Amino acid sequence: MQASPEFAELRKRFRNFAFPMTAAFLAWYLLSTYAVDFMSQRVAGNINVGLLFGLGQFASTFLITWLYIRHADRNLDPIATQIRDELEGAR
């Protein structure tokens, strides 16, 4: 089954979502680690860019989760169901 075109398509669709999201999230995280001067700039009062980025990481985690669920429902689950049905002999 791993050599089938359906499984290859499933892997491709997963990777097309997972790799860019992972790269974006890591870039966001690394920016907060290495851009110390930028992150320490004050926005208002005791609030600086780093604090806003830190809070934004929580929001971005929920956003990425929501996007993945939507992507999986539309693009991954139909193929995975087809593969499972084929393996189990349901159809």
TrEMBL record:
Keywords: Membrane, Transmembrane, Transmembrane helix. This is DUF485 domain-containing protein. It comes from Jiangella ureilytica. PANTHER family: INTEGRAL MEMBRANE PROTEIN-RELATED, MEMBRANE PROTEIN. It holds the Pfam family DUF485. The keyword rRNA-binding does not apply. It comes from the Bacteria. The lineage of its organism: Bacteria, Bacillati, Actinomycetota, Actinomycetes, Jiangellales. The chain crosses the membrane at residues 17-35, 47-69.
